[in-house]
Amino acid sequence: MDNQDKKRLQIVDAATKRFTHFGMAKTTMAEIAKDLSISKASLYYYFPDKMHLVMAVTEKLVSSIFDALNQKIFKLQTLEESIYFLLELKLKFTIDHYNLLEMILGTFSETPPELEELARKSHQEEINIISKLLQQADQRGEIKASDPDELAEIFSNAMTGMRFSVLKDGRRIILPSKSKFDEMVKKQKKLAKLIIKGLKQA
Questions:
Q1: Distance between CA atoms of 199 and 142, rounded to whole angstroms?
Q2: How far is CA 124 from CA 5, 85, 130, 148, 150, in A?
Q3: What residues pair up with 173 in beta bridges, in sequence order?
C-alpha cells in the first residue's frame, strides 16, 4: 500500500468515526480534516465532496464483511454450516453497523448509480463464494452440483428474493428493523436447508 492509499484509508476511517458518533448531516469536511491534522485542500484532493466520502465509507464497510467471510467460510465442514455462517455474519454486520448504514441510506432520496453498482458487485461476490462452497461440497460427496455457478446464482437470488420486498421501496433502499432482519435470516436458513436437502438427493 503506497502513501496515497494509506492517506485515503486514514481519511475513510476518520470519516467513519465522525459519521458514527455525530451523524453525517452534522459532520463537515473541515472537522474531518482537523481530526487528521491536514488541510481542507488535502482532504478535497482525495475526496472532492462529502458524497464521495460517504461512498468510500460504504465501500469499506462492504469490503470488511467479505474479508471476514473469506477468512473462515471455506474452512467449515459442511455446506449447511457454511451457508448459515454467511447468513449469520451478514446479520451481525448489519446489526453492528445499523445506525451508520441507516444514515448512509437515508442520505439519498434515490439510490445513486454508484451505490447500485456496489450492490451489484457485492451480490456477484456472494454468488462467487456460494459457487466455491458448492464445488467443495460436491468434491466431498456431500451434494451433486453439476453446474455450481448456475446453482449459486439461483441460491443467492432465492435468499435475496426473500428479503427484497422489505429492503426495497421503488428506487430507494430501505433498512428494515433489526427484528425484521432476524426474522428474515431465520426464514433464509429454512429455505437454505430445503435447497441443500434437494441437492443431496439430486
A1: 9
A2: 25, 18, 10, 14, 12
A3: 168
Spell out a b/e string for 129-144, using b for 16 or more CB atoms within 10 Å of the CB, else e: bbbbbbebbbeeebbe
Contact partners, residue 8, CB within 8 Å, separation at least 6 = 46, 56
Q: Which CATH code for domain 51-201?
A: 1.10.357.10
The residue assigned the cell 465509507 is 57
Residue 179 grid cell: 427484528
**pTM of the shown model:** 0.85
Residue 107 CB coordination number (10 Å): 17
The answer to whether 147 and 153 are in contact (CB under 8 A) is no
Residue type for position 90 = K
Nearest CA to 155 out of 201, 119, 184, 193 is that of 193
pLDDT of residue 70: 95
Grid coordinates standing for 61?
464497510
DSSP run (H or E) holding 128: helix 113-140
Domain extents in the chain: 1-48, 51-201
pLDDT band of 202, cuts 50, 70, 90 = low
Cell (9 digits) for 151: 446453482
What is the per-residue pLDDT across 127-157, written as a single tens digit (0 to 9) for each? 999 999 999 999 999 999 889 999 999 999 9
Hey, what CATH topology would domain 1-48 get? Arc Repressor Mutant, subunit A (1.10.10)
